[in-house]
Predict the structure.
Amino acid sequence: MVGFIPKVVPRKIRNNQVALRSEANTGHIEGYIKTESERLDATGRKLQKTYWDPILQRYVLFKETKVRGPFMNKASIARKVDFPIGGPSMPVPKAKK
């Protein structure tokens, strides 16, 4: 059939959630849940959104990226976060041996 567009199988990224990475190379990543129209988009375009980058303290373009491995498990959650521009910092509790 001419003009037939098959239904696109959505990428299996935890219930249509994708990672958006800062284009400013600060390493900041935001999670985003795709809408129905974005899921069924057959063009293969990657998402682009503007979000607040807490490291640069301004709005920056974020693009869809692939994140390798599980990124929401206990081992990969940061215990201490230092922002270069006067951000919050918390003391790290020492582990018992």
